[in-house]
Structures are given as structure tokens and as C-alpha cells.
Amino acid sequence: MTDHPEHAIRCPWCHATPGNRCTSPRGRRIPVASHDARIQAWTTRTDARDQKTGEPT
């Protein structure tokens, strides 16, 4: 399991599959756990789900 909740979704930038770290365009590991695009996508998805259920964020 991972310490990064954004790993639950596919990265829209590098297309890393759920559960895997983001990679560079050449497929190498990057120094950070996730691309900003993946973090933003996860945040947006989580916020939308919270608004739908009415749960506080």
C-alpha cells in the first residue's frame, strides 16, 4: 500500500496506473511521488464526491 492517496487514480500526465508511482516520459521514477496533475485530479475528484454526499471536507 502507498502513503499517497492520489495513487488511487491514474495519472493524467504520465498515465501511471492506480497504485503505482508516476514516471518520467522515459519511464523512470521521478524524485517526487506524484505529478501535480495527478494530485490535482485526485483533489478535484475527492471534492466532487464530498459535495455529492454532503460530507465535510
Percent helix range: 25-40%
SSE class: mainly alpha
Write the H/E string, N to C.
H
Number of helices: 1
Rg from Cα: 12 Å
Low-pLDDT runs of 5+ residues are none
**Overall outline:** elongated
Count of β-strands = 0
Strand fraction equals under 5%
User: Span from first to last CA?
Assistant: 23 Å
* Major pleated sheet: none
Roughly what is the average pLDDT, rounded to an integer? 87
In summary, what is this structure?
With 57 residues, this protein is an all-alpha fold. The protein is built from one helix and no strands.
Task: Describe this entry's structure for a reader.
- With 57 residues, the chain is mainly alpha-helical.
- 32% of the residues lie in helices and 0% in strands.
- It is built from one helix and no strands.
- The protein has one helix at 36-53.
- It is elongated.
- The mean pLDDT is 87.
Q: Keywords for this structure?
A:
57 residues; mainly alpha; elongated
Topology diagram in text:
Elements: H1 36-53
